[in-house]
Amino acid sequence: MSALDAEDVDIFPLVSRAAEQRGIPIVGLLAMLKAESGLRRTAERWGDRSRDAVEHIGDVDYLRGLLADLRRRGIGLDVSFGYSQLIVSTAGGYGIGDGSMSVDNVLAVREALFDRTMSIDVGARHLSGCYSQADGYDEQDLQALLAYNSGSPQPQGNWYWQRWAGNIASYEAALQWARELLAV
User: Fold this and answer.
1) Distance between CA 24 and CA 98 in Å, rounded?
2) Alpha carbon 146 to its chain's center
3) How far apart are CA 32 and CA 140, in angstroms?
4) Exposure string over 126-136, b if 16+ CB within 10 A, otherwise e
5) Residue 146 DSSP one-character state
6) Which of these, 46, 100, 92, lies nearest to 73 by C-alpha position?
7) What are the E-state strand segments in the chain?
8) Which of 15, 38, 147, 168 could form an SS bridge with 130, CB 3.0 to 4.6 Å?
9) What is the rounded CA–CA span in Å between residue 5 and residue 92?
10) pTM of the predicted model, to two decimals?
11) How far apart are the first and last CA of the chain?
12) The pLDDT of residue 157
């Protein structure tokens, strides 16, 4: 069994180990990684300014201004990295950085989450809590992924399903992909 990332590296052994260690279904972990990053180890999102950030990654003053702009517009928390696309503040809760949006911390989190093992493991740790939240829901895998995205399960038909239909479709497609890969 193999799962190739965007760089043609087989991440299946890392994913399998992380799922087993965290007691979560491998199908859910694979789907989360696929939906969040397209299995791109160096995926990154800087709110709506990702292109600018990547183009100026070595310019600390530029990044400081960019992060201030994101905070001012209320989207400062939407900065995430790696396969798992954990936001900086959430990563801080798992001991990766200090949770702040300082340039030094954001860049340190970026570097840490670009590591295959680290990103998969911390993503699995976070997803484990999401599975706990989704316990008892129909479609537990999907509900765990929705909790990963929004902070809690989202009962079908509530406002989230309309507002974030694209995210839900992405998670459903990723679950289908993972089920086919695992032949389950």
Assistant:
1) 27
2) 11
3) 13
4) bbbebbebbee
5) H
6) 46
7) 44-46, 79-81, 86-87
8) 147
9) 25
10) 0.94
11) 13
12) 85
